[in-house]
């Protein structure tokens, strides 16, 4: 989230707990604001160690005391752009959903997301026809425990640590390993008394090829899970899926000090970030995806 914030997005957390909203300081070299010259009043929330980023939570009745702006199920992205409290500085909005390990809450959250995406799609079409103004930019990053089979129209990429045996496997072996991992992980929700969840297929249908720009599966010791009960990062305890959803739009150009700057590309940023984080994935798959 720090990386995306420093790359031109205004990052806001949905379904965050207060402890996850404290992001710490962004390295000076990766941010346009110099720590030595910027005043405290000009620093964004992500620049302050002792101030949480703006967030909406699943439990606003208790989290409001710690800075939650309200329920994630009632959040309206347009509210951010019109808010006097949240200053985006002209940056496009990026909403991160680091979902809890709660199937029922995930169902409610993602059906809300589906409704928001469908509404945006309707507004985009109206804007193209000239009957309405185009909607404000809103992109999403979803971080999910690898329990559900979310059939996005984007080939999933397997990311493993460089020390993992799969890092030396052939593309065919990696594909078979990914299929096996997905089948094993998805079986968790099919054990015992099962409850049908419709959000995985409805989200994929709403995203289509126009929205989804990244779908990565992370396994192995390189991925750390932050355990709030111990306040420490743990390894080898979970597998995670990260999905990037970029609102279909023309990338806007703004001028800053005589230099033209484009809206950030979520696809390029996520691909670059994970490629440089010592994860190993199949380069041929990534190149094929970039060519789509």
Could you explain the architecture of this structure?
By secondary structure, the chain is an alpha/beta fold. The protein has one domain (2-290). 32% of the residues lie in helices and 21% in strands. It is built from nine helices and 13 strands. The strands form three sheets. The protein has a nine-stranded mixed β-sheet, with helices on both faces. The protein has a two-stranded antiparallel sheet with strand order 8-9. Strands 11-12 form a two-stranded antiparallel ribbon. Helix 3 links the parallel strand 2 and strand 3 (68-71). Helix 5 (103-128) runs parallel beside helix 7. Mean pLDDT is 74; it is low at 25-46 and 283-292.
Task: Give the count of structural domains.
Answer: 1
Kindly state the percentage of residues in helix. Answer: 25-40%
CA-based shape: globular
* Alpha-beta content class: alpha/beta
Low-confidence stretches: 25-46, 283-292
| SS elements, strand count | 13
Number of helices: 9
How far the N terminus sits from the C terminus, by CA atoms, comes to: 26 Å
Portion of residues in beta strands equals: 15-25%
Tell me the series of helices and strands, N- to C-terminal: HEHEHEHEHEEHHEEEEEEHEH
Could you state the oligomeric state of the chains shown? Answer: single chain
What spatial order of strands do you see in the largest sheet?
3-2-1-4-5-10-7-6-13
Radius of gyration: 19 Å
The residue-averaged pLDDT reads 74
Report the major sheet. 9 strands, mixed
Pfam families: PCIF1_WW
Domain PCIF1 WW: 13-79
GO molecular function, one term: RNA polymerase II C-terminal domain binding
Organism: Trypanosoma vivax (strain Y486)
């Amino acid at each position: 989230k720090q990386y995306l914030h420093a790359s031109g997005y205004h990052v806001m957390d949905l379904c965050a707990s207060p402890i996850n909203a404290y992001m710490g300081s962004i390295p000076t070299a990766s941010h346009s604001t110099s720590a030595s010259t910027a005043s405290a009043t000009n620093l964004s929330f992500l620049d302050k160690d002792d101030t949480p980023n703006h967030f909406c939570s699943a439990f606003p009745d208790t989290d409001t005391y710690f800075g939650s702006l309200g329920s994630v199920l009632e959040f309206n992205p347009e509210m951010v752009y019109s808010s006097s409290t949240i200053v985006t500085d002209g940056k496009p909005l990026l909403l991160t959903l680091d979902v809890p390990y709660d199937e029922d809450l995930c169902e409610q959250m993602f059906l809300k997301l589906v409704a928001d995406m469908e509404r945006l799609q309707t507004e985009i079409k109206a804007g193209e026809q000239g009957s309405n103004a185009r909607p404000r930019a809103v992109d999403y990053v979803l971080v999910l425990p690898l329990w559900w089979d979310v059939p996005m129209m984007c080939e999933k990429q397997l990311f493993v640590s460089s020390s993992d045996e799969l890092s030396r496997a052939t593309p065919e072996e990696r594909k078979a390993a990914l299929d096996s991992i997905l089948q094993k992980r998805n079986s968790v929700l099919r054990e015992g008394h099962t409850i049908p969840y419709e959000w995985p297929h409805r989200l994929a249908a709403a995203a289509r090829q126009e929205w989804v720009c990244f779908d990565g599966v992370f396994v192995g010791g390189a991925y750390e899970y932050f355990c709030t009960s111990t306040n420490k990062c743990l390894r080898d305890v979970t597998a995670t899926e990260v999905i990037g959803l970029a609102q279909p739009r023309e990338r806007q150009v703004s001028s800053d000090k005589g230099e033209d700057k484009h809206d950030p590309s979520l696809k390029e940023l996520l691909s670059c970030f994970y490629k440089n984080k010592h994860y190993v994935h199949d380069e041929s798959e990534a190149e094929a995806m970039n060519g789509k």
